[in-house]
UniProtKB/TrEMBL annotation:
Protein name (record): Disease resistance R13L4/SHOC-2-like LRR domain-containing protein
Keyword Repeat attached: yes
PANTHER family attached to this UniProt entry: LEUCINE-RICH REPEAT-CONTAINING PROTEIN 28, PTHR48051
Pfam family, one: LRR_8
Transmembrane segments: none
PROSITE patterns: LRR
Entry-linked InterPro entries: Leu-rich_rpt, Leu-rich_rpt_typical-subtyp, LRR_dom_sf, LRR_domain-containing, LRR_R13L4/SHOC2-like
Amino acid sequence: MATELHETISMAKQERHKNLFLNYRNLNHFPVELLKDEGLQFLERLYMKRNSLTTLPDNLAQKLPNLIELYLHSNNIVIIPEAIGDLARLQSLDLSNNALQFLCPEIGRLRSLRHLRLSNNQLKCLPQEIGDLQDLETVDVSRNQLLSLPHRLHRCTSLQNLTADHNLLSHVPRQLCWLHRLNQLSMAANRLTFLPLDLGRSRELQFVFVDNNVELKGLPSYLYNKVIGCSGCGVSAQVLEGDLGEALGKALVGLPAEVKVVGSETDNVVPLEEIAMRTLHRIYQHRPTDLNLLPPITLPKSLLDLLQFPLGHCHRCSQTMFTIIYPKVFPLRDTALAGVHRRTTVSFVAYCCSSRCLRTFDLQG
């Protein structure tokens, strides 16, 4: 086996191969032949799936400087060295099915990275530096132990596909609604209780899968015309037919802390704090850089953050909302989708900015 490996790598060096396949070699260590002398300066794709590697060498980028794709699926890798950030040309990194418990912040230096696969590891958190990867298109972090997603993930402006199934996530950061290229979001089998008000507002987002989140009982009405998966959601709640009040109460479980008032059709006066926030937002929405120039005594930091990332937009008129919502519930069983989604008791919820919008909202458009 060692002789065959040596011959394979020697031939790759001599013939300047761009692709090198070292899958199923039962390797416990990174082959020293790859790191000798000048290394493989011309290698672009390295496949080392289904071995027994536990780590990577610190000088990987020095010896393989032109690496574009690195496939390390199904090894026993526990830690990735900080030097991983030196792979300046890397576009695809597959570390799925390993034993990772920690991902170093230097991952954020892979500015050319487009595809990141970390499924089936033991990760409990992700570094905020992932938000520095503006070319990132695909992220798969399914089957880990994640309790939350990085709030800076919304900076990955090229992100199109995010998969985070089978984790311990209790909420979706509303900042993700600012990912205007996101086409598919999958967060099945987590612990979600609530979804951001604006989820689905982007026309680009067409596929949302939140199956088997048993405590999730409300879906933003923006998702009504999308391809959704919600089987197994809300199954712990038995809502009586026609009992919209109980359905609404259950759909609003897990509301963000920023929501201070839940309005109804009879509430015709919007609170002063909400009016002030809407006014400030109108002033600065065309000059977002000026948000950082506001004196710190003007508003508490929490409200400044809310000004930058509003609670959501009215599902009727698109007015921004900050501290109050006027919800209207539509049990899925009463919609045209009832025959498509059977094992679920969720409701669609329209979040409106006023009692007037609440009264005039129509789920059918």
